[in-house]
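Let us practice reading a record.
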Amino acid sequence: MKKVLSVIMLSVLAVSLIGCGSSETENRGNSAAANENTPMQTGVTEGTDSEAAQGSETTESEQSAAQDKTTGLETAEPESDTAGDSGAEHGSNALVVYFSWSGNTENVANAIAGQTGADVFEIVPEETYTSDYNTLLDIAAEEKENGARPAIAGSIDDISQYDIIYVGYPNWWSDMPMILYTFFDSYDLSGKTLAPFCTSGGSGLSGTVSSIRELEPEANVLDGLHIGSSAASDPAQAVSDWLESLGLME
């Protein structure tokens, strides 16, 4: 009887040991699988999203740069062609005369010369104006009050050869700088076509076109062009539209 009981007990113990070993092995396998899959899945997902976003930004940036480059080339080519054609047609009998203190009027003068092929004469005062704006205001006001005629350095050798004269100036105290009056006093512009252009911070041409018509009653004074200071750095389109409106561009 004792031998039988011993055999039964040993059998039960062996079955229990086998079951525990199998359970531990399964649990270890499940734990290892969980620890391996979780970080890999997270890393792949984050990496894919990040790379996709970077790829999208790069593509959009490249497309934008390519589009800007193409647009710039398309804009530049017609301007070059227009300037060449108009210069051949009008350059031989046209002159741009201008006075510029800050450089704004000079930019417009250069744009006109570039689109028409006109010769250029800069009105330069014998006595240079101050570079201080507030001091300049006082000088300009005093010159206007006294009807001054500041002297011009240099002169135009033969103004009779020009039929069209573009005259440019800044607006000082709702008038042309007095050195422009010196210019009109110095030359006979009878029979010529005068096209005034002006730059200012916002006061426009004021009464300057009427003043020129009074000074040059025997000239054909056309409608003037005003360009604000903020637009004077790139006046090409405004100049082109003005020239076309006056019939000076074909």
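A brief commentary: Residues 96 and 166 are 5 Å apart (CA to CA).
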